[in-house]
Amino acid sequence: MKTIYNFSAGPSTLPKQATEEASAAIANFAGTGIGIMEMSHRTKPIEGMVEETENLLRELLSIPSGYEVLFLGGGASLQFNMAPMNLLDSNASADYTDTGVWANKALKEAKRFGKVNVVCSSKESVYNHIPKKFEQTPGAAYLHVTSNNTIYGTQWKEFPQTDTYLVCDMSSDILSRPIDVSKFGLIYAGAQKNMGPAGVTTVIVRSDILGKIEREIPTMLDYRTHISEKSMFNTPPVFAIYVVNRVLHWLKNLGGVAAIEKTNIEKANLLYEALDNSKLFKGTAAKEDRSTMNVPFVLSSVVPEAQKEAVEKDFLKAAVEKGLEQLKGHRSVGGFRASIYNAMPVEGVEALVTFLNEFEKKF
C-alpha cells in the first residue's frame, strides 16, 4: 500500500501512534475490558485520563498557576459566543482584529453582547497579511486575535501588547510553537487542526477575569460551571479527549513544543522555498506573515487565465495519484493549500516539493 500524505486543513492528519492507540481503546480501555466509548465518564479510569490530559497540556504549554483548563464541546464557533458572554458586559466594549474568515465570524458574534471595536482589518486585500499598526481602544475589556488564519495562510508572529489581556482563537496553531500563556486571559482551540479529532475544544482561562459581568449567563455557557465540575458538568467528549491525550503523549516524547517548532519551521521553509523558486506556482500570503501551518498557493501568470481551471484539475488529480491528498484550496482563495500541522512528517513535505517540481516541468 502506497504512503498517503493528508494535507487537509481540518479535520487533519494525526500521529499514527495516537490513532492506533485510540483504536485499541475502542475495544478495551486501560485493561478494563470495556471500550472507552462505552464507559461512564464518572468512572475512575476516565476521570484519571481527563486529569492526565490536562496535566500534559499544562506541562507542554507551561501554563502558569491561576489558569484553568477545560475540555468542552461545541467547537471554536461556540467560543465566539461563550467568550464575550462571560467577559464582555453589555455596556462595555472589546477590541477585535479582523484577519480572516474565522476572526470575522468571532467579531460578528461578539456584537450580540457588547460593543465591538474592529481595530484593524486586512479584508480588503483578501486577508493576505496581518495588520500590525493599529490603536487599541482605551477602556476596552480585551483584545481578540486569531493566531493563525487557516484559509489565508497568515499567522501572528508576535502577539500585540495590550493594557488588558488577549483573548485568542488558537485553533490551528496551538502546540506548534512555544507561547507565553501569561499574556492571555483566554485561549480557545478546536482540537481538529493540531491536537486531536473534531468534537472537543480546549479552553485555557485565567480564573480572575471571570464573574465580573452583570448579565445572567446560562449554566451550560458559564465557564465557572465547567471549572467547578472539572469539565464533567455533563458528559464530555470522552473519546475525543482521549485522542488528544495520546497526541500530547506523542508530542512530549518528541521533545515537546520547542522541538516540534523546529520541525515545523523546517517543513515550512522547505515548501516556501520551493514556491519562491517556482515559475508555475506562487504563494498568496505576505512573506513576513506566512503561516507555518497552512500554505495556500496558486498558479502564476505563466498559465493563461482561460487554462487555469483545467491545469488545477490536472494538478489535483496527479497529486492524488502520488498519494498527496486534500490539496484543493479554499474557495475564497482558490488554487491549492497544503496544511502541514505537527503530525505531518518532513517526508510528506519533501514528497510534495518533489511533485511540484515534476509537475512544473510540463510547462
Detail the topology: elements first, then pairings.
Elements: E1 5-6, H1 16-27, H2 44-61, E2 67-72, H3 75-87, E3 93-98, H4 101-110, E4 115-121, E5 143-146, E6 148-149, E7 154-155, E8 166-169, E9 184-190, E10 201-206, H5 223-228, H6 238-254, H7 257-276, E11 281-283, E12 294-299, H8 308-321, E13 324-325, E14 336-339, H9 346-360
Parallel strand pairs: 1-13, 3-4, 3-5, 5-8, 8-9
Antiparallel strand pairs: 2-10, 6-7, 9-10, 11-12, 12-14
What radius of gyration results from the CA coordinates? Answer: 21 Å
CATH overall fold name of the largest domain: Aspartate Aminotransferase, domain 2
Task: Give the count of helical stretches.
Answer: 9
Q: Estimate nothing, just give the exact number of structural domains.
A: 2
Derived from helix and strand composition plus strand pairing, the structural class reads alpha/beta
Unreliable segments of 5+ consecutive residues: none
* CATH 4th-level superfamily of the largest domain: Type I PLP-dependent aspartate aminotransferase-like (Major domain)
Q: What is the CATH C-level name of the largest domain?
A: Alpha Beta
What portion of residues is helical? Answer: 25-40%
What profile does the largest beta sheet have?
7 strands, mixed
Overall pLDDT: 97
SSE run = EHHEHEHEEEEEEEHHHEEHEEH
* Gross CATH architecture of the largest domain: 3-Layer(aba) Sandwich
Q: Based on CA inertia axes, which overall geometry fits?
A: globular
Order of strands, main sheet, comes to 2-10-9-8-5-3-4
Name the beta content range: 15-25%
> What is the number of strand segments?
14
> Kindly, what is the distance between the CA atoms of the first and last residues, rounded to a whole number of angstroms?
31 Å
